[in-house]
């Protein structure tokens, strides 16, 4: 990746996540365009670009990114509500990174090499990750549905759909560990989950629930391992 683009991204990360206190974010949400913190935040981004480049010759780049950053943040503050706050957070970051790439291309003639999208190995990896997410969750649900304990209701102490997302994360991590030849990390992950999960089940004194969770865990790990080795063989 071009060093100029890396520096621009670094300046953004420092400005948006390290030098923006929570109080500033709340002030922008409350006062919107009248918030002085909004303009101070943009000014910090501009100054950071001068700092990372150690030069004032990039003033056009700094000013352009500053203006685009102001437009994006101002738009977010105007349209953000409690319901769409999460979506707008990610949309905001996508637009910021997109504006950085645009300015980099405009002033430095940079371009992103996306030739890897024509490589079949890339698509094997994408298929592997996607299969281990929701499709595997649905497959597992169908397989172990007949063993679902009658007393396994939604518990107010449990986060909604937490089990599904924990399963997806663990399978994706296994996929990454195996493809990067860190097999010991798979064992560590299984041990860590066993300590946290089965400790709670032991206190619950529910044999059927314990067996149900054990079947689900081993099935999840088993599918992840098999799929990971299949993809590993294909990409090699």
TrEMBL record:
<dbReference type="Pfam" id="PF11750">
    <property type="entry name" value="DUF3307"/>
</dbReference>
<feature type="transmembrane region" description="Helical">
    <location>
        <begin position="86"/>
        <end position="108"/>
    </location>
</feature>
<keyword id="KW-0812">Transmembrane</keyword>
<keyword id="KW-0472">Membrane</keyword>
<protein>
    <submittedName>
        <fullName>DUF3307 domain-containing protein</fullName>
    </submittedName>
</protein>
<dbReference type="InterPro" id="IPR021737">
    <property type="entry name" value="Phage_phiKZ_Orf197"/>
</dbReference>
<feature type="transmembrane region" description="Helical">
    <location>
        <begin position="38"/>
        <end position="56"/>
    </location>
</feature>
<feature type="transmembrane region" description="Helical">
    <location>
        <begin position="212"/>
        <end position="235"/>
    </location>
</feature>
<feature type="transmembrane region" description="Helical">
    <location>
        <begin position="168"/>
        <end position="192"/>
    </location>
</feature>
<feature type="transmembrane region" description="Helical">
    <location>
        <begin position="123"/>
        <end position="148"/>
    </location>
</feature>
<keyword id="KW-1133">Transmembrane helix</keyword>
């Amino acid at each position: 990746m071009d060093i100029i683009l890396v520096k621009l991204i670094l300046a953004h990360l420092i400005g948006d996540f390290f030098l923006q206190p929570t109080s500033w974010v709340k002030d922008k949400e409350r006062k919107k365009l009248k918030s002085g913190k909004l303009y101070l935040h943009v000014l910090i981004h501009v100054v950071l670009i001068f700092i990372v480049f150690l030069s004032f010759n990039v003033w056009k780049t700094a000013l352009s990114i500053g203006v685009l950053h102001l437009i994006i943040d101002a738009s977010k503050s105007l349209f953000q509500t409690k319901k769409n706050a999460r979506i707008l957070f990610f949309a905001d970051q996508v637009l910021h990174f997109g504006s950085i790439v645009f300015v980099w291309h405009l002033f430095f003639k940079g371009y992103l090499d996306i030739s890897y999208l024509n490589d079949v190995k890339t698509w094997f990896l994408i298929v592997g990750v996607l299969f281990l997410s929701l499709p595997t969750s649905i497959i597992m649900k169908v397989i172990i549905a007949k063993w679902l304990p009658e007393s396994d209701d939604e518990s107010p102490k449990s986060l909604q759909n937490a089990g599904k997302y924990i399963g997806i994360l663990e399978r994706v991590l296994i996929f990454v560990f195996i493809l990067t030849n860190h097999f010991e990390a798979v064992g560590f992950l299984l041990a860590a989950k066993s300590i946290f999960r089965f400790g709670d089940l032991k206190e619950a004194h529910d044999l059927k629930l314990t067996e149900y969770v054990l079947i689900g865990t081993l099935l999840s790990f088993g599918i992840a391992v098999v799929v990971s080795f299949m993809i590993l063989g294909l990409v090699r």
